[in-house]
Amino acid sequence: MGDPLDHVALVVRRLEPVLERLDWLEAGPIEAFPSEGTREVYLGVGLGRLLLMEPTNGQSPYARALAKRGAGLHHMAINVPDLREFLGCVRGWLLVPACLQDLARTRTAWLARPGVATLLEVHEAERAEGAALVEQVELPGPLPVDPRPAMLPSNDDGVWLTIAGRRRSVSELTR
Question: Given CB 3.0 to 4.6 Å as the disulfide criterion, which of 12, 21, 133, 162 pairs with 48?
């Protein structure tokens, strides 16, 4: 189903309380990214990692997303072998203009789709194989017929992640 997830990013108010609730997942080091205005930590290894992002700068895009929508899903990331080819065949997703300046250098595109409550980060890199920690994401509202990546419509207004075979509410994970 679509491209395998590299990671799923959640914006949270504070990392530590969420890490305590998810103590059954292997956590990497907490890293600060002053230029991004975040503290971040990956949970899990390999495919489908969970990325927790805490805004540290009130003017960052992540702080604005947190203020506008609250804690929850920010973006999903996939790796594709050929970014140009992917962008030429993906339908219904719009390239976020802010990524154009660095697209050639970073080989990373950010896409948005009207009515879909997440951004899609697409990076040119070899696709990894294996089982993913986050196997799928369920989102409210109509979704594309060709899910990119493992997106499904939720049967309610919630956002859900299937993590290690278990369906979990993003609002519960990020509270």
Answer: 133
